[in-house]
Design goal:
Blueprint (H helix, E strand, L loop, with lengths): L17 H68 L3 H4 L3 H18 L7 H24 L4 H16 L5 H20 L2 H33 L5 H42 L4 H16 L11 H28 L8 H10 L3 H26 L3 E5 L3 H13 L4 E5 L3 H10 L6 E4 L2 H9 L7 H4 L19 E7 L2 E4 L13 E2 L10 H15 L1 H9 L13 H14 L2 H8 L21 E2 L12 E4 L14 E10 L4 H11 L1 H8 L9 H10 L4 H10 L6 E3 L1 H4 L2 H21 L5 H14 L18
Parallel strand pairs: 1-2, 1-3, 6-7, 9-10
Antiparallel strand pairs: 3-9, 4-9, 5-7, 5-8
Helix pairs in contact: 1-3, 1-6, 1-7, 1-8, 1-9, 1-10, 3-4, 3-14, 4-5, 4-6, 6-8, 7-8, 8-9, 8-10, 17-18, 17-19, 20-26, 22-23, 23-24, 26-27
Length: about 775
């Protein structure tokens, strides 16, 4: 051996030859490294990763969901009984809170069915049936039998049994599901003997590989007289990294699994207590704590794993290369036999076609490793909004243009879906809603995150822009004009005849709101912005009788008298969706076609209808336009994540708003965009007319009153509209406005005032 000590004549042969020793080190190193890497990549990491994903994606949502459903039905029961005790059941039945909570419970059970483990299907099915039966019983108690004391007591007792009956009640069914999921969480947080053994053996094999590499360096130093073998030293360090990094990640993941299990257990300890007022806040906090628990991602393609596997394999290859180079250099006459590897390579790349296949396979492997990393750097933003159809397409196009990946859910049952998700501790990142009164409620419950840094220095018009007092929790993403009437270019009619108007009162989950726009517009034009704003907020010196006396009662009477001139048209309005039979936004196109439609700018169809101010055409008029009623969709942040903030920046920016500006039914509340389009924008005459009215500084703009009201009052408003139309259709006149409006006044009186909407900005300032 060159560079080594020669054996003297007669000297006894010492141990194994250097060449053979290095070969043994080489094969031992390769064997130990292969065992360690194989166990890590094929057993240890994937199995632990599967447990993490199941706990994070299924068990945690199911435990949170069962607790949320339980909370929802308890809140619904409490609200329904309070509705009876406070004497408002005759007006609102079980009440807005009970109805929305029952809807949230129904949504929660649907979502729960997607996450629970096997064997729970029957319990979920039973819970669905019990919820439906309970809802029917509580509805009968608060509506049909609200004037029959004995029957009401019977139905309330029936509802109690359905809800809290031992073993068979809805709560016990939910408890059974929750405890089963808790047991599943305990099983997943326990790594078990097989998984633990795979980690131990993998770590031991990699440690042995590192030891063998170190012994090879020692042998080269002692027998060959070389002090350093850098390539082999790298090979000694690489297996140690492969052993310690995943061990650290496994320990961290195990700790997180245990923490999540304890948090889920805490949720159940709170949720399974029937003392609702004392536990509701604690339950919400516990759910948010679980939602915020970050379980490490041990995916085989996770960036941590990708980094250490690539570096580790490079180090292993370096050690092999160092040993082979040493043997080839010192023993050129007897090199390491790699003919089998060269033969395999030559056979695999013998033809051009095979070389292309090999290259494609290599690229596929690289893509499989790289693609998840790219996706991980650009996470998905969850958005819940009211837009469907073309409006949804425009939103998705805006997000795509900004390079933002979104998971968007557009639904007419937005209130119920959002409530269900919030109570389950899993709200969307962003919610887009028209009702700032409802957003104020979420703000009061501390679910919303401030947007101050996102909206600083943005020039938006009032009243869409919040007044700037304190933190900003919502911001407009589009705007609509409501104090207008669409006039058909083809149909002819008289403004004083209901038969000339589109009067549909229906919409999924919000029937009656088209009628509220008529009454709001009449109040605004008759009484002015100040009275209108106090009515919307439930404030002012006349708040205790605002519904039963004065401008609101007078406006309601004018509208009822208008409807009373055509009972048949009123009856048709009660059962007709304002969007027409195909749920489009061109109700005017139905047959026979209406001559007039009192709807907002979002109702622009493709029939060429012209818009004009509503004030001169309203019942009891003509009035002068004292203000314009407007509306908008407002974005609020529920999860303070940078990707979600990036999406909001795109929505709020001037570039983003310009994408709304001239596209049919989407308009902007941003002043620079308004001004540009009103002056010289390349849009149709309708958009010019709308932006021209937005910019009339001498005429204030006021938000839709029902969008500002507390949810319970808003729903009572919708119901009162429907009751009025029904009375007109039945009797040709409004049966008893005093009773109808008195019921709404009572709802406003008993509604909790915690939402703090008294300071909400309703109208913009006029600058004559």
């Amino acid at each position: 051996m060159r560079g080594g000590r020669e054996q003297r004549p007669g000297e006894a042969r010492r141990g194994v030859s250097t060449r053979r020793l290095l070969l043994r080190h080489l094969w031992a190193f390769l064997g130990c490294a292969a065992v360690g890497v194989s166990l890590l990549t094929a057993v240890a990491v994937p199995q632990l990763d599967a447990q993490v994903r199941e706990l994070r994606d299924d068990v945690a949502p199911s435990v949170r969901g069962s607790a949320a459903v339980r909370l929802a039905v308890l809140r619904a029961d409490e609200a329904a009984r309070h509705s009876i005790e406070r004497g408002v059941a005759g007006t609102v039945g079980a009440g807005e809170t009970a109805q929305s909570q029952l809807a949230a419970a129904d949504q929660g059970l649907t979502q729960l069915a997607d996450h629970v483990g096997s064997g729970m299907d029957q319990d979920i099915s039973a819970a669905n049936g019990l919820l439906e039966a309970y809802s029917n019983a509580i509805t009968l108690a608060t509506v049909k039998y609200q004037a029959d004391g004995e029957m009401q007591k019977e139905k309330l007792a029936e509802a109690h049994d359905l809800l809290k009956g031992p073993d068979t009640g809805l709560l016990d069914r939910l408890d059974k599901v929750a405890r089963a999921e808790q047991r599943r969480a305990g099983e997943l947080s326990d790594q078990g003997a097989l998984l633990t053994a795979s980690w131990v053996v993998a770590a031991a094999a990699l440690a042995a590989a590192a030891t063998v590499a170190g012994l090879a360096c020692r042998a080269i130093s002692r027998r060959c007289g070389r002090l350093l073998a850098p390539w082999i030293l790298a090979g000694a360090a690489a297996p140690m990294a492969l052993a310690t990094v995943p061990a650290f990640l496994a320990w961290r993941t195990a700790q997180s699994l245990n923490t999540a299990r304890d948090h889920l257990s805490g949720i159940l300890d709170i949720a399974l207590t029937d003392s609702l007022p004392a536990t509701a806040g604690d339950l919400t906090a516990a759910q948010q704590q679980v939602a915020a628990t970050g379980l490490p991602d041990l995916s085989a393609f996770g960036w941590w794993n990708g980094a250490y596997v690539v570096v580790g394999l490079a180090g292993i290859c370096a050690a092999v290369a160092g040993l082979v180079a040493r043997l080839t250099t010192d023993y050129p006459e007897r090199p390491v036999d790699w003919s089998w590897a060269r033969g395999s390579w030559n056979r695999a790349t013998r033809t051009k076609g095979r070389r292309w296949i090999a290259a494609a396979a290599a690229l596929a492997v690289l893509a499989a490793i790289a693609t998840p990393q790219l996706l991980e750097r650009d996470p998905v933003v969850t958005v819940l909004g009211p837009w469907t159809g073309k409006e949804e397409d425009r939103f998705r196009g805006l997000m795509e243009a900004a390079g933002i990946r979104v998971s968007y859910q557009g639904t007419p049952a937005q209130r119920e879906v959002l409530l269900s998700r919030v109570q389950a501790g899993d709200p969307p990142d962003i919610a887009i809603m028209p009702g700032i009164g409802e957003l104020a409620q979420y703000r009061a419950e501390k679910h919303l995150k401030p947007l101050d840094d996102l909206v600083k220095d943005l020039r938006y018009a009032g009243p869409w822009r919040p007044d700037g007092k304190g933190h900003t929790y919502w911001w407009p993403v589009n705007a609509n004009l409501k104090s207008i009437v669409w006039q058909s270019r083809d149909a002819v009619g008289r403004p004083g005849a209901p038969s000339s108007w589109c009067l549909g009162m229906g919409e999924d989950g919000a029937a009656g709101w088209p009628g509220t726009d008529w009454i709001e517009d009449i109040v605004l034009q008759r009484a002015g912005p100040d009275v209108y704003a106090d009515w919307a907020r439930g404030t002012g010196k006349n708040a205790s009788a605002v519904w039963t006396k004065g401008p609101v009662r007078e406006a309601w009477q004018q509208w009822a008298q208008f409807l009373g001139t055509d009972r048949e048209r009123a009856e048709q309005a009660l059962i007709t969706d304002w969007r027409g039979p195909d749920n489009g936004t061109a109700f005017r196109e139905t047959t026979p076609r209406c001559a007039f439609e009192h709807q907002g700018s979002f109702a622009q169809g493709d029939d060429g209808a012209r818009l004009t101010d509503a004030a001169p055409l309203l019942p009891g008029g003509p009035y002068r336009t004292r203000a314009y009623e407007v509306s908008g969709d407002f974005a609020a942040l529920f999860n303070d994540r940078e990707p979600a903030r990036k999406a909001l920046r795109a929505l709020f920016s001037e570039d983003g708003q310009k994408r709304w500006a001239g596209q049919g039914t989407m308009y902007s509340a941003m002043l620079p965009v308004m001004t540009e389009i009103a002056d010289h924008g390349e849009v149709d005459s309708t958009a010019h007319a709308i932006y021209g009215r937005f910019l009339q500084t001498e005429v204030p703009r006021c938000l839709d009153a029902s969008d500002v009201m507390r949810p319970a009052v808003r729903d009572a408003f919708h119901e009162a509209v429907l009751r009025t139309v029904a009375a007109v259709a039945r009797d040709g006149k409004s049966a008893n406005l005093g009773a109808i409006l008195g019921g709404v006044q009572k709802v406003q009186k008993v509604t909790d005032q915690d939402e703090d909407i008294e300071e909400l900005r309703v109208c913009s300032e006029s600058r004559a």
